[in-house]
Amino acid sequence: MYKSHQLLKSGKFGAALKIAAAIGVLFPSMHANAVVEQAFSLPMTVEYDTNPVFLSNDKESAWRYLIVPTYGIKLDDGLNTWFADGSLAVERSSNTDLIVKREDPTVNFGWIRQIAGGKVRVRGGYEENSARIVELQRAGLILGTDQKRRTRMFEVNFEKLLTEKLTAFSDFTYEKTTFSGGDIGVVGYYIPTLRVAAEYQLTERTIPLVEFQVSELNPESSPESRFTGAMAGSKFLISPAFEWNFRAGWYDVNGSGNAESFNDWQGVVAAIYRTNKTSTKLEASRLVEPSGIGEYYKVDRFQGQLNYELTSLSDVGANVDITKNEFRDFDFKFRQASVFYRRTVAQNWDALFNVAHRQLLIEGDRIYSNTVGFTVTYKIPTF
């Protein structure tokens, strides 16, 4: 009890609670006739991991215990929508040498304004998570210590119907990522991104599209790199059950100083198929992303998701995620496959059983980890 009291009194979480309380007080007072919706969930997870830090030799296992209280609120007056949500991931383990104690907050807030033939959306956010987990998947880095990765972001989205069939989109995003806890081989960076796109309703089932994107990666104490890319493609609504889409084009990364310059093709193809009891989604892509080692990198990725409804209260599913990440001096592959069983056990209570296998292939080594987890979630979808 004392530890929980001290945690809530700490500056970070005390400020978060004050913000949440202020949101709860201010939202209803903005418009007397507005509709207010709130939601709450509390997932509680116990997981066994055979190799949580991906050691190639002297592997050690650990139990992980995680609770993530999450609260969201939305106010809608028909013209404006204000929203905010926050969570606190509290993690403990049976071996603190492998998995340190963590309390990672996430906060999102924003506003959506309906305009003639479109809408404007503004959103801000803050997130803390494990540098070890994120940079393992993004950059293949096996970090010796588990430090914090902090991300602050702000974005503005604009959507406007220009004609009966032509819709324009514009997005601006600013993201800043920092790392703390000592020299762990990664560097912070900030990256502004501008994207403009357009869709044309050619027929009821065919929607061609084009998009153009520019961004600039600015790492701490390193030269910046600029990304320019364009893609064109189409959405195809084959039937109410089946749809697919593709985008393809070219990109160029121009690095200043000793930063790398390169160019290549990029693209995405995806398909979704639904029946009364199943949902299947497949996606293959080649894209460019920023990383914690201070440069853009190329990502080839395949994702597959399958869901099957057993009864009105239960379902099963499987997920596959395969990536190949290419950097200037090395490349690696990360593979993950999982299956789950989920069931509603009582009003407001869900249970989930999950089994996963992960592989990291880097510099001739094949490192793997297996996890078995059980999650019980208490949730109030709306109140």
What features would you describe in this structure?
The protein is mainly β and 383 residues long. Helix content is 10%, strand content 66%. It has three helices and 19 strands. It has helices at 2-9, 11-30, 131-139; strands at residues 35-49, 62-67, 70-76, 80-93, 102-115, 118-130, 148-161, 166-180, 189-200, 206-219, 225-237, 242-255, 262-274, 278-290, 296-311, 314-326, 331-346, 349-362, 365-380. It has a 19-stranded antiparallel sheet that branches. β11 (225-237) and β12 form a beta hairpin. The chain is globular and about 60 Å long. The two termini are 29 Å apart. Mean pLDDT is 87; it is low at 1-11.
Furnish the topology, listing elements before pairings:
Elements: H1 2-9, H2 11-30, E1 35-49, E2 62-67, E3 70-76, E4 80-93, E5 102-115, E6 118-130, H3 131-139, E7 148-161, E8 166-180, E9 189-200, E10 206-219, E11 225-237, E12 242-255, E13 262-274, E14 278-290, E15 296-311, E16 314-326, E17 331-346, E18 349-362, E19 365-380
Structural class: mainly beta
Distance between the termini: 29 Å
Beta fraction of the residues? over 45%
Mean pLDDT over the full residue set: 87
Give the low-confidence spans: 1-11
Query: Helix and strand succession?
Result: HHEEEEEEHEEEEEEEEEEEEE
What's the number of extended β-strand segments? 19
Shape: globular
For the sheet with most strands, the description reads: 19 strands, antiparallel
- Helix % is under 10%
**CA-atom Rg in angstroms:** 22 Å
Number of helices: 3
